[in-house]
Amino acid sequence: MLLTPLLSVALLTAPAVDPPAPVAAPDGLKRAQVSADADWVVHVDIRGLLASGFGVLLDEAMSSDDDFAEVQRELGLDPRRDIASVTVYGTADDPERPVILVAGDAALDRALDHVAGKAFRRTIDLDGVSVDRWSEDEHEDEAVYTYLARRAGSEQRLLVASPHAAGVAQGLAVLRGESASLADDDGDFGASASPSAGAFAFVAVREGFSRLEDIDPSSRVAQLVQSAVVEAGEFQDEAFVRVSVTAPNATDANQIATILQGGSALLTLVAQSEEEARPLLPLVQGLSITADGPSVTVKAHHPTARLIEMARDAAGGRRHRAHDGDAGEADEYRRAPAKPKKKSGDGWY
Fold it and tell me: What is the pairing mode between strands 99-104 and 295-303?
């Protein structure tokens, strides 16, 4: 599918091979760009992620990743410098028509031209707007549609993409203020779709959780959950994860909390008994699971520096076994060296 060259941008949340450039301010979720009809929304603040303590860790992890370097060459851009954030939203009833919003700068223009040399691009008219249709070749039915929105006098760009032309049409209607957005939604979902300070990964799902694709409808938890919010980030040098779900009533919320607490207890036993899992014990023991009326909240936080140290220990402490027929011996512990670190009212047209 052509999503590989174009929509791979939405997955590039790690820095590239070269030493990272100074990162700009975080690029949080903009509810005015998300349709009020959305049943779910995912936002990755790439600038916020790279500005956090995890930015250097990701650079270390990707510094020798040949596959990532190849993807970077294929797309013709550097995600660290050229992409600010990625937002994806859609509805439970039409999971095949997500809307993808890639915020960046003028490098997105060059990236599309770069990809145009590797795929078939045809311009189509969509309600008076010229939209690009991308496919593997001229006769391929499967395609992806894109429109690159600009701001007058600015380097800012917003790539609107979808596997269906109707998805791009919906995204443009919201962007231009012709269709209601989450910023206009004064209901529970509109209010909950607001990431906490420091969150660089955010997911919100409104009522109808069990109808979502890839959710097992037979799962007891899926049956009990009506809506959910998941976010991860860093605030005041502490990494955090927060999960908040809403059940039909307090009884169901308590049942969800009981299931989650049982899982937490099992993880604690594993961390206590397995040597390799023992460093995770403070994380598991730090989980907070509470039920309040129909809501259940799971929280965890830990010093970022300590998590980075644990990740480096895990990566650098791999034991290499030499197999010579009958047995293998573990090589010495090796630690990886650290490395340095129509215009809308909003102006889009």
Answer: unpaired
Structure tokens at 287: 């989980």
> Between 107-116 and 66-75, two packed helices, what is the crossing angle to 10 degrees?
90
The tally of domains found in the chain comes to 2
Regarding whether 285 and 181 lie in a shared domain, the answer is no
Ramachandran category for residue 305: left, alpha or beta (phi over 0 → left; psi -120 to 50 → alpha): alpha
Question: Both 147 and 239 in a single domain?
Answer: no
Look at the chain and count its residues: 349
The verdict on 178 and 304 lying in the same domain is: no
Q: Which of 187, 189, 186 is nearest to 204 (CA)?
A: 189
Phi-psi region of 149 (alpha: psi -120 to 50; beta: other; left: phi over 0): beta
DSSP 124: E
Per-residue pLDDT reduced to its tens digit, 221-249:
667 888 899 999 999 999 999 999 999 99
Structure tokens at 152: 């007058």
What's the predicted TM-score (pTM) here?
Answer: 0.79
d(CA 304, CA 240) in angstroms, rounded, equals 9
Q: Give me the domain span that covers residue 288.
A: 209-316
* Distance separating alpha carbons of residues 169 and 101, to the nearest angstrom: 13
Instruction: Report the pLDDT value the prediction gives residue 210, as an integer from 0 to 100.
Output: 54
| Domain membership flag for residue 325 | no
For residue 129, give every residue at least 6 positions away whose Cβ sits within 8 Å of its Cβ, in sequence order, or none: 147, 172
